[in-house]
Amino acid sequence: MTIPPKKKTSKTRTKQRTTNWIKLSARKLLNRVQLQYDEAWVAVWLSHFAKVDGTYNWRQVFKVKTKKKSTTRI
Question: How far apart are CA 5 and CA 10, in angstroms?
């Protein structure tokens, strides 16, 4: 069994607490996402992730594999 509260929490107080928690969570989430910028200072990709073409920090990290075209024999 839990102990009941001594006084009832008003609806306004509950809504204020919920709103502040939502704002704080949104701010933390916004600060967590880091973007990487190109030479023109345009956000292009997520930080610490290699791009699709295989470059990371303007260096070629891995080769991108292309799918081989399959031929069917008759």
Answer: 12
Q: Is 56 inside any structural domain?
A: yes
DSSP state string for 28-73: HHHHH--EEE-TT--EEEETTS--TTSEETTEE-SPPP-PPPP---
Within 10 angstroms of residue 54's Cβ, the number of other Cβ atoms is 13
Residue 8 included in any domain: no
Question: Residue 54's pLDDT band (boundaries 50, 70, 90)?
Answer: confident
Domain span at residue 44 reads: 22-60
16 lies in some domain? no
Per-residue pLDDT reduced to its tens digit, 11-34: 999 999 999 988 888 887 767 767
CB 53 within 8 A of CB 61: no
pLDDT at 39: 79
